[in-house]
Amino acid sequence: MAGVNHSRRRGRPKRGDGGPELSKGRILAAAADAFARDGYGGARVNDIARRAKTNKRMLYHYFGGKEGLYTAVLEHAYAAFRTAERKLRIDNLPPEEGLRRLVEFTFDYCSENPRFIALLNNENLYRGRHVRGSKQVRALYPPLIESIRKLLARGRASGRFRDGVDPLRLYISIASLGYFYFSNLHTLSAAFDRDFSAPGERRAQRRHVVDLVLASLRLDTAPQAVKK
Fold it and tell me: CB of 136 within 8 A of CB of 175?
């Protein structure tokens, strides 16, 4: 039929939508909001497609379905966290300063990215199933743990840090001190009748977390063996 353009295949992005990468980015952003707000079980594909200004067919074309989209959202969230973390360049800093920056950054990232906290909370309900199945997420952390190991080694060599600190366990502690505070902000505030979301409370907790981590590493504050 004259005047009909048959060149566009069904299911491909329409002209003017910015192309595949922009379309995928809009879907990821809409999906991250939906999964953070409603969880994996509560989020709806149709709603995500509508908010991304696309259709369900395109969502399935790019991500294979809801589970693939959810995994992609988690991968994107973890990658954004690590990308920001790498900008600290802690390998180039004195050991104590490098770890101080890492603790401060981790606490601040948890404070400024409640959606990331919500996504982690939801994934833990699924016992980490989607993260476990993602090679991309699991590949993000060995370089960081190696950087911490080198900082600890340099700190020991300079006589500032004690022996026996596992870099992986140290990172888990650093992440926990930020994550727990913000993932439990409302229940902590209710239980202690104190607004822990207030700027002053956040600043005080940040200082406390930094002091706590660094004190645990210093040679002059090393824990003593308990005598039986």
Answer: no
In this structure, the answer to whether residues 93 and 34 fall within a common structural domain is no
**Max Cα–Cα distance, the chain, nearest Å:** 94
Q: What is the CA radius of gyration of the chain?
A: 22
pTM comes to 0.86
How many structural domains is the chain composed of?
Answer: 2
Please count the residues of the chain.
228
Ramachandran angles phi, psi of 42, nearest 5°? -90, -25
Which one, of 144, 220, 221, 136, lies nearest residue 175 by Cα? 144
pLDDT digits (tens, 9 = 90+) for 32-63: 999 999 999 999 999 999 999 999 999 999 99
Nearest to 96 by CA among 214, 222, 219: 214
User: 32, 64, 96: which is the final residue of a domain?
Assistant: 64
**For the purposes of burial, counting CB atoms within 10 Å of the CB of 191, is it exposed (0-12), middle (13-18) or buried (19 or more)?**
exposed
Asked whether the CA dihedral 160, 165, 168, 173 is positive or negative, the reply is: negative
For residue 101, give both structure tokens.
């920056």
